[in-house]
Amino acid sequence: MTTSLPLHYVGRDSSNPNGEARPLLVLLHGFASYEQHLFRHAGLFDPQWPIIAPRAPLRIGPGAYRWFYFTRTATGPIIETEEQHVSLRLLVVFLEAIRDQRKPRQIFLLGHSQGGSMALSVLMTRPDLIDGVVNVNGRIVPNNAASPSADSRLRGFPVFTRHGEDNPIVPLPMAHRTRDLLMQHGVSIDYRDVPNIGHGFTPEILADSSQWLKDRAETRTAQPVNDAPLR
Which of 49, 57, 109, 177 qualifies as a cystine partner to 119, CB 3.0-4.6 A? Predict the structure, then answer.
């Protein structure tokens, strides 16, 4: 689907569109992937939830896009900070537009790899836009510490994280540092190391996250809107 929004996306509507506002799930793919990578698993999530899957803005090649470039090293990836900042700004504008146009009851982000890192970047900078994050094999990138205005909103914020014990791209210590930083901010995190998935994900992880999302949607009160500029 091509729109005037800053990111190309695909989506599905609620199976029961009766005018009632419903939670919206936004799927964020990883490096060298595209919007269908997670969207093809949309059937694992509540059919009454509309789903949107945007494409990262930076093209690598046919069917391959990125949120930011990175260099692989022995201790983990070193990212291109400026690319990440530009992509984050585009993603924030996209989420603001989707919120204003569709007026969902809540917005939840689910990201894999770089998509997980982007979801966590939104959490750390604009938590007012979202109501929960599912992160699979992503991590908080450098220079995305919570701003003072965002920090108070992080207390009790729900985050679901699964990370491969044998992850060769984002080593486990990086995931543990992300977990510990989120806990320092008072985030309510459901964290688990998962064996034998490397840097990938499984349908079982997505199914578990689907139940977690339904539980959070039933209990979480939508946060007040804060249109402060991205810091």
Answer: 109
Task: Write the single-letter amino acid at 121.
Answer: S
Within-domain flag for 229: no
What is the Cα–Cα distance from 122 to 99, expressed in whole angstroms?
14
Euclidean distance between CA atoms 62 and 72, whole angstroms:
22
Q: Are 186 and 216 in contact (CB under 8 A)?
A: no
CATH code of the domain containing 91: 3.40.50.1820
Number of domains the chain is built from:
1
Q: Is residue 4 part of a domain?
A: no
Task: Specify the DSSP class assigned to residue 43.
Answer: G
Contact of 201 with 162, CB cutoff 8 Å: yes
Q: Are 127 and 150 in contact (CB under 8 A)?
A: yes
Residue 216, helix vs strand vs coil: helix
Number of residues assigned to the chain: 231
Query: What is the percent of the chain where pLDDT is above 90?
Result: 79
At residue 220 the predicted structure's pLDDT band, cuts being 50, 70 and 90, is low
Two structure tokens written together for 135: 């992160």
Q: How far apart are the first and last CA of the chain?
A: 30
Angle subtended by helix axes 81-102 and 114-125, to nearest 10: 70
In a domain, 176, yes or no: yes
**Tens-digit pLDDT profile for residues 155-181:** 999 999 999 999 999 999 999 999 999
